[in-house]
Give the backbone structure.
Amino acid sequence: MRKSRLAIAAHAAILLVSIPVSAHQEGDIIVRGGFTAVVPNDDSDAINLPTDPATVLPGGVGVDTGYALGLTGVWMITDIWGLELLAATPFEHDIDVKDLNIDAGSTEHLPPTLSLQWYPMGGKPGWQPYLGLGVNYTTFFSESVDSELRDVLGAVLDVNTAKLSLDDSFGLSAQAGVDIPLNDKWMLNFGVWYIDIDTEATIDVTTNAGAAAEVSFDVEIDPWVYNIGIAYKF
């Protein structure tokens, strides 16, 4: 019985070793997809409400984690260098006012990122780790103000309506990851990015008396982005 088990284990090990594993090489197209989490490392300016004297919320706002389906495509320029475009389905983030512990609103965004990647294996088969530097463009849309913040603004400014907008952002990004071959085409992928995302938030309000006011403040989102998924090489 023991010999039989050893024989089975040895046979399984031989099968694993014999799985054909090809290297990343010049001209390859690699498509990666998976579960992606955007985890903000956020910071916000104080919020000065236009009252007399001004009401100040020194803690600003916080941005919660968002999840979506991530998708990247890589073109191997050489055996060592690759060009990657990060895309995704829209990420949605809840926004809260830290000082008051209330919901402020929500937004969706898309963070396309173009990166130049370095693959140290240089055309050799096996695990394929990589490092990358790139440029990110983040566009925000579907911004909304939560009823809890609207009630606070109503008490302070006699607000009737409130509208939130976030400016788009350009910034640098850095990444690290690895493709773990399953065969000559399919791979597991693990990746992480750090992206510089800074935006100016603006809340436009209208009072019951018809007066208009505007509250603007800077928000640094600067998220860590984590992805786990699969990859396919053409």
